[in-house]
Amino acid sequence: MGHTPDISSLATFNFYEPVWYIDQTSEFPKPKRKLGRWLGEAYDIGQAMCYWVLPISGIPIARSSVQPIPPEDLTTDDAVQELAALDKILTEKFGEPIRSEDLSEYDINNPDIDNEYITPLFEPMEPENSMPEADLWDAEAYDRYISAQVILPSGDSQLLGTVTARKRDAHGNPVGISNKNPILDTRIYEVTFPDGHSAEFSANTIAECLYSHRQTQKDNSMHLWMRY
């Protein structure tokens, strides 16, 4: 989708594990802390760290007061009885949980399933605008000279041209080696001018012209400032 998601809200719980949540509607002497089953993050409800919880009613509720239960607390008699009562009611409402051996029936690699009717797990909203993989980028994608517009000498005049690509040898390898010092940069570029013709220029020449153009703009701006 073009960004790195934050999954820290999913790192605390496992699906359907027993959790504590606070029920503000409980009146004394009933405890406000209740037992439920964790269903996942409530993305479009409440604040961050808001989760769906399946309570004893069988109707999912969104709560931001969800807490994990330490393993040692689940072994106490009260917790065992409360969890057994919760699972008993949920089983009566929804039936027995699916066993791991039953999941093969829903495996998309199962030859007995017609994959034509299986919805992909992830489908970009705009497939044609999907972000390319890093391996699909070449060095020119990060070249600061590529697509730069610069005024360069062309015959007896100077023309505005666009740097379109690196020059390559007969084997398709880029000509020259880059260097932080423009004087030592031996790369050669192809520049296209408005009339359609192309010419080759060294990185040193392009850098010099870019600097000269920026310096001219800076001097003109200073002259205008001093004038007014």
Number of strands: 9
Q: Main beta sheet: strand number and arrangement?
A: 5 strands, antiparallel
CATH class of the largest domain: Mainly Beta
Structural shape: rod-shaped
The number of helical elements comes to: 2
Task: For the record, give the distance between the C-alpha atoms at the N and C termini, rounded to a whole number.
Answer: 50 Å
Helix-residue proportion: 10-25%
Strand fraction equals 15-25%
CATH topology of the largest domain: SH3 type barrels
Mean pLDDT: 76
Query: How does the helix and strand content classify structurally?
Result: alpha+beta
The order of strands across the largest sheet is 4-3-2-1-5
Number of domains: 2
Low-confidence stretches: none
Query: What would CATH call the architecture of the largest domain?
Result: Roll
How would you spell out the order of helices and strands? EEEEEHEEEEH
Q: Compute the gyration radius: what is it?
A: 33 Å
